[in-house]
Amino acid sequence: MSKFIDRVVLHVRAGKGGHGCASVHREKFKPLGGPDGGNGGNGGDVILEVDANVHTLLDFHFHPHAKAGNGKPGEGGNRDGKQGADLVLKVPDGTVVLDDDGKVLVDLVGSGNRFIVARGGRGGLGNAALASKARKAPGFALLGEDGEELDLVLELKSVADVGLVGFPSAGKSSLVSVLSAAKPKIADYPFTTLVPNLGVVASGDTTFTVADVPGLIPGASEGRGLGLDFLRHLERCAVLAHVVDCATLEPGRDPVSDVDALEAELAAYKPALSADAELGDLAGRPRVVILNKIDVPDAAELAEMVTAEFTERGWPVFEISAVSRAGLRPLTFALADLVRRYREEHPQAAPKRPVIRPIAVDDTGFSVLADPEEPGGFIVRGTRPERWVRQTQFDNDEAVGYLADRLARLGVEDELVRLGAEPGAPVTIGDVTFEWEPQISAGIDMVPTGRGTDIRLEQTDRVSAAERKHASRVRRGLVREDEE
Question: Is residue 131 located within the same domain as residue 171?
């Protein structure tokens, strides 16, 4: 028997980008053939797509980890690495995606709707793409970026036009079974229904869906019973129908008190999608009262007594019997009319067009802030400088010099000077902290002295940490000045 799962935690990881290749073309009688290192392939994305044939989040319950394909590294001979394969995850219609802080990222409604939840890392450029007039044969390549990795919460909120609300054993499942072709489990004990049941109802030219929500009890909005697990399935319903058991033998219960208790729970529940389809809170949805089980004589008399009180509230009242099917025809027509009226007032929104926002002329693409934890230090933030740092091989001097040139051309060097940065000041970009050297002529094209080297990194008058440590040992008489 299949299991219904409507809330899961999903761990997704996009693919890593492949590293660029640092290669020089070699051929007999053709020395110095030039750089021919290819670019690394981009990592694959993790994509959620609505599929009409998927009705539960069961697959993610048993397989909570999802990983897209990694990009392949570039190769010599100008061969680019293969792109990582995207991972497309099929989800049911009505799936809401939240981050680990509970913020709604996207509401996936409509078959075929897609959303990229984790983007793959960029592939690094090979040395063929990094060649320039001054750097004709780069001895380095850029590293590939890691893909995005995050934890998501997927919640399934049933997409139904009419939601049936009521106490346990009120006859909601029986009503769905006679209104539609759905065959939910029906028994004579409370909480028979443990999962929402959807049924499709045709009335004249109108076809609508009905959701049978598991029984609610007082305190459901605070988590009692199955309340919080299934109240969310009412969030998208345009019409709420109270199904009242007029034949209950429980002491202290009657149709009016049952409806008032459920109304209090609906008013107390705060939907996460309060702005979904402009429906508003549950307390403001149109109501219908269905007095069930009138095939029982005492229930029929009770239904007749309370009808006037519900009518005074402006709610349509219908006396029915799901067993004998009495009163179902006018109920079906009334529900179809309410749904049709709602659809006329809320036409389906047109698909959103992509919006292209040009970069402002005064946008530098980065910001430099004082480091609150390091006196005299600075933190550089921005998409480009942080990406450049992640793609740099710090064991290759030429790659570090290339990074310094890029940062200088972006304006980071000038901004540090303007803010009063001193030589040797710790500057943090992303996860890397380095000592700022303003005298290495960053941003000026330099002729490389050799592959993988940069003469500017060797030309500094500032005393290194190793030299300061050695001088301290000499002053304390631990070693002679000529000793290492």
Answer: no
Residue carrying the six token digits 């890392």: 121
Specify binding-site residues.
Answer: 166-173, 191-195, 212-215, 292-295, 321-323
Residues in the annotated binding site for Mg(2+)? 173, 193
Contacts of 132 (CB under 8 A, 6+ apart): 445
Query: How many CB atoms lie under 10 A from the CB of residue 362?
Result: 5
Cα(187)–Cα(153) distance, rounded to whole angstroms? 33
For residues 152-179, average pLDDT: 80
Domain encompassing residue 413: 366-436
Tell me, yes or no, whether 115 and 181 share the same domain. Answer: no
Q: At 267, is the pLDDT very low, low, confident or very high (cuts 50, 70, 90)?
A: confident
Distance separating alpha carbons of residues 484 and 480, to the nearest angstrom: 8
Separation between Cα atoms, residue 90 and residue 111, nearest integer Å: 10
Alpha helices in 11-87 (DSSP H): 58-62
AA identity, residue 84 = G
> Residues annotated in the binding site for GTP, as ranges?
166-173, 191-195, 212-215, 292-295, 321-323
pLDDT digits (tens, 9 = 90+) for 370-399: 888 888 889 999 888 999 999 999 888 888
- Predicted TM-score (pTM) of the model is 0.67
